[in-house]
Amino acid sequence: MTAPTTSWIDSANDGQTHFPLQNLPYGVFSPSGQGPRVGVAIGNFVLDLAALDEAGLLPAAARGTFAGASLNRFIALGKPVWSETRKRLTALLSGADGALRDNDSLRDVALVPMDWVRLHLPVEIPGYTDFYSSKEHATNVGRMFRDPENALLPNWLEIPIGYNGRASSVVVSGTELHRPNGQIKLPNEARPIFGPCRKLDFELEVGFIVGRESALGEPVSTDAAPDHMFGMVLLNDWSARDIQQWEYVPLGPFNSKGFGTSISPWVVTMEALEPFRRENPVQTPEPLPYLQQHGKNAYDIALEVALRPQGAAAASTICRTNFKAMYWTMAQQLAHHTVSGCNVRVGDLMGSGTISGTTPDSYGSMLELTRNGAEPLTLADGSRRGFLEDGDDVIMTGYCEGDGYRVGFGQVSGTILPARSA
Ligand code: CA
User: Does residue 77 sit within a domain?
Assistant: First the structure.
């Protein structure tokens, strides 16, 4: 029997919504006047899983895990329970099981219009790691800051390069961030100045949420990696380029990245993304054995970035790209992360690295789109941007295109506030 594809909730069936029956992403929300709980997005509604659980409509194995302020307890139950819960939700929302559709009072409580809810950070994130896995991005950056002839460092084609980021400053979409202050080294000065970042940037990324912990000392193989992944989010890895350029040698970015990372409120499960797996790009040289992988490990996710200046009527789309062209895959990132014996925890966030394509309109950062500010973009309202200005709202969206439906991530947005007086 094929899985049902339409819901009795009309707004889930229009072919354009990011949240059709085939998606069912998890988030944490507060209905007005009530505490946070776990929900699933369906069309223009959020389905309150705590209420469904209370009514006894969800799998017994997941009992009691939806009433809290994060997905972690549910995620920790593991893949078989994720799968069973998805099957139950599909039956309830398709109407194959009428227990929700035909119960007026439960429906009134459990189905909340999306516009009425406040969305929270969906996961308690113990650790955040950021990779650097787009060959186009690494090449563009290497050309600008190092040697145009040898843009990729020799280790890049052997290692899914990454660094340990800050989990404490990962925030949910809609959170405003102050322009960071920091040390900036101007070209003709002997010593750095201290002040507001002048080259504030975004990085278009996606991230996966670890769904199963690994033990200290025990590597996770590329073949086992999918069992350790719960789902994916959109991610904006805000970056202060001038601070970064001065601080990043020898140990990598620090203050230039630690001031904030924004993620989308909905976690799209790996199960919902399964139909969108694709062959990953051919890797030359052949990776070392522990990085070799089988099957399809890339995901076809169309991505866009838009910028809306303060007070502007409309946002301007400034980047269109796709996640499927990433050189290093998520399975390889996890295998590399753990090969030394480093353990991962439920809820850990693994950023893909900036996702850039081959054409100038597919670059996933201002640094690349404007060639480090030298070639400013012109926006719909006529204003120009080398980097981000105060009041700018950066909006990232992403979805997988199915046959007559979209499995979408919604959006991750964030507005830049002026720097705090130093
Ligand atoms: Ca990054």
Answer: yes
